Amino acid sequence: MKDRFRAIMVRNDGGTTRAGLEELSLPDLMDGDVVVAVSHSTVNYKDGLAVTGRAPVVRKFPMIPGIDLAGTVETSSNPKFKPGDKVLINGYGLSENHFGGYSEFARVNADWLVPLPAAFSPAEAMAIGTAGYTAMLCVLALEDAHVTPDKGPVVVTGAAGGVGSVAVALLARLGYRVVASTGRPEEEAYLKGLGAAEIIPRTELSGAAKPLAKERWAGAVDTVGSSTLANVIASLSYGGAVAACGLAGGMDLPASVAPFILRGVSLLGIESVYMPMTRRLQAWQRLARDLDVKALAAMTQMISLKDVPKAAEDILAGRIRGRLVVEIGP
Prior knowledge:
Blueprint: E1 5-13, E2 16-24, E3 34-43, H1 45-52, E4 68-76, E5 86-90, E6 105-108, E7 114-115, H2 122-144, E8 154-156, H3 162-173, E9 178-182, H4 188-194, E10 198-201, H5 203-206, E11 217-222, H6 226-234, E12 236-244, H7 258-262, E13 266-269, H8 277-290, H9 293-298, E14 300-304, H10 308-316, E15 323-327
Parallel strand pairs: 8-9, 8-11, 9-10, 11-12, 12-13, 14-15
Antiparallel strand pairs: 1-2, 3-4, 3-6, 3-15, 4-5, 5-7
Helix pairs in contact: 1-10, 2-3, 2-8
């Protein structure tokens, strides 16, 4: 184990947030019963907010951001894990109130760790990351709501982003007719390569929503929120459901109760940070079964730890397609 190692540290000086590479030692890390040698992390939208300080994601400073990590157990005082075990974490307060994944080493609670599925390398698991794990939670929620491929098409909003890309690939492989909504028409070939049957412009769903619109979708995965989510709800077919997991378009919901009481539709909220372990394990088992690794490779870019601050700006500006994986250590 190294005496000194690199990490991205976010500090707040007089209300100004700044992030940069620093050198740390193990005593600098927070409490936990497992030390993980981190090999890979990710850049998600939430990471962009944490690194730039654009939203109050970080609850205490200084903070090592990174809501995901994958690597190898270095030391463990918990019998659940032993040195050499391959593991990953999504959420559990990483980057908010506990040091996260942008570090060569992380000391964490064993109860947060998921054994790395044999189907994935650490890099592939981080190509999935919180975004892909959240997409799988959305798919599971739609299945629980009895939204099956025979019921009709499903729409994915923000389809070229991290959650959207994985959702498109998963739903298409499961036999759904996937309609991808995006504000980036240049990504049509990319989205069709993931399995989308049809591409629609973001503007179709971004205007003021009617109380009730023509029935179009049996189900939906929404990563945008606000007027987009309101339009999706208004266009759900009888008994349809939308899994809502994002708020890139805003936290408001200018919708009507009409679709709920006249068509019996459902709005399914997806929370991924503190999801119980049984559901987490189910999601990762299904990802190992249902996600095409070739599709995963097509949506993934690799960057180094020093590139994280710029990537944080880029993801908030909508300049990132698919998934960003951070190579941190060997």
